[in-house]
Specification:
Blueprint: E1 2-6, H1 10-21, E2 25-29, E3 41-44, H2 46-54, H3 58-64, E4 66-67, E5 70-75, E6 81-86, E7 96-99, H4 100-114, E8 117-119, E9 124-129, E10 134-138, E11 143-146, E12 148-151, H5 158-163, E13 174-186, H6 187-191, E14 205-210, E15 213-220, E16 225-233, E17 243-244, H7 249-255, H8 261-269, E18 274-280, E19 294-296, H9 299-302, H10 311-327, H11 336-365, H12 396-404, H13 407-417
Helix pairs in contact: 1-4, 1-10, 2-10, 10-11, 10-13
GO molecular function, one term: FAD binding
Pfam families: FAD_binding_3
InterPro entries: FAD-bd, FAD-dep_Monooxygenase_BioMet, FAD/NAD-bd_sf
Length: about 425
């Protein structure tokens, strides 16, 4: 099949590699001049690492990623460990921790190696489809056609507005009052200071919790860097977009002024940071065009808070399920509308549940140490609270479901029932 992908971010490049290695004709179109890898550390949960193994990427990921055995919750004022939560439980597949930059570079090189073509400085103006083909119009007037278009153009996706314009439902991101400030530091520089030893003493994901703020740190022995993401709730700032390169370090230092010595010191060492407002997409009525040949992928369909470490994993699951359905159909180009509808039916309920969980976890962490003692999280989106049972998110069954999901098996079960 001829597959067109809009966006050379992590989702678009992951899809390009997956489908190119299955011998499809894949072209990626990116509006920027070069690759962009905004953001810090990322997780590949066992549900995703299971898939990445089948894609033949285990060796490459072991080279750049650290295995994360647990999540350590700490009291931010003292640095004391409060509890440790297994992040991969008894899974046969690891929880990998790495950075967005490393993953983007990996998937770009693997996609090219597999035969995909990536075109930069290509702005997409319009998309449309009919029962036979999908069409994309570039800013230079060129029209490109294919059997399927995958729109991985992010939370501000233009494609989303084009293919869902017939629906009377919210399509805009829901922006929270929480700003996350991202830092990446040279680990050797951090290690020079005695008070920062607890930042590099393990390869786990460390969550430092206080009232109305929290930080997540991760040390990479392979990359020899330390990433920290500091979350604060405050009034509106001068920030114009969801993400920008120039965070106000003095503001973060002030907010975390009561933190333990290690956090305060590392914020003094840092010279710059990026920042972004935590945001998510409301549940969409569908992820596909009416004719079914254009599909939203990743953040363009289901952007979520990063607080559960599930964003990248859900993208990988999306891609794998779609690839399984396409691969097992004798005439996928002719049956595209049926395949994308089934794909959406398989994926939508799981992803929307994890969106809820991710946002709930953000506000849970903002309650600081009280989350360990059974208090309710801060109120969020009251109109949806009636449909959410917070207690479900705390059960071992739910946690196992988030981590151990088998996308290939889910696709097989759905096909057997159809």
């Amino acid at each position: 099949m001829k597959i067109i992908i809009i966006g050379a971010g992590l989702g678009g490049l992951s899809a390009a590699y997956c489908f190119a290695r299955l011998r499809h004709d894949v072209d990626v179109y990116e509006r920027r001049k070069t690759l962009s890898a905004n953001g810090g550390s990322l997780s590949a949960r066992p549900s995703a690492s299971r898939i990445l193994h089948t894609w033949g990427l285990a060796a490459e990921l072991e080279r750049i990623a650290n295995r994360t055995s647990s999540i350590i919750l700490r009291e931010i004022e003292t640095g004391d460990i409060l509890t440790e939560i297994a992040s991969s439980d008894d899974s046969d597949y690891p929880h990998w921790g790495t950075t967005r930059e490393e993953l983007v570079k990996l998937f770009y090189s693997k996609a090219i190696e597999a035969g995909a073509s990536v075109h930069f400085e290509c702005t997409v103006l319009d998309v449309r489809d009919d029962i036979h083909q999908a069409y994309m119009v570039l800013k230079n007037g060129t029209t490109i056609s294919g059997d399927m278009i995958l729109a991985a153009d992010g939370i501000h996706s233009r494609t989303r507005y084009r293919i869902l314009s017939d629906l009377n439902c919210p399509l805009e991101p829901v922006v929270s009052s929480i700003t996350a400030y991202g830092f990446k530091l040279d680990a050797l520089q951090v290690m020079k200071h005695l008070e920062t030893s607890n930042l590099t003493e393990n390869l786990c994901s460390n969550v430092w919790m206080g009232k109305d703020l929290f930080a997540v740190s991760r040390y990479s022995v392979k990359g020899q860097h330390l990433t920290i993401l500091c979350h604060c709730t405050h009034a509106a700032t001068d920030q114009k977009a969801l993400w920008d390169r120039n965070g106000d370090i003095s503001h973060v230092r002030e907010d975390f002024g009561g933190a333990c010595a290690s956090i305060r010191r590392v914020l003094q060492i840092a010279k710059s940071c990026d920042r972004w407002r935590l945001a998510e997409l409301p549940p969409l009525a569908r992820w596909t065009s009416e004719k079914g040949r254009i599909a939203l992928l990743g953040d363009s369909a289901h952007a979520m808070h990063p607080s559960a470490g599930q964003g990248f994993s859900q993208i990988v699951e999306d891609i794998e399920v779609l690839a399984q359905l396409v691969s097992r159909d004798a005439s996928p180009a002719s049956n595209m509308a049926w395949l994308t509808r089934m794909w959406q039916d398989i994926r939508k309920s799981r992803v929307e549940r994890i969106q809820q969980y991710s946002k709930w976890n953000t506000y849970r962490l903002l309650n600081g140490t009280s989350l360990l003692y059974g208090s309710q999280p801060l109120a969020w989106n009251p109109s949806q609270q009636h449909s959410i049972n917070y207690e479900d998110f705390k059960t071992p069954e739910f946690v196992k479901w988030t981590l151990e999901y088998d996308a290939e098996k889910e696709a097989s079960v759905s096909l057997s029932r159809s």
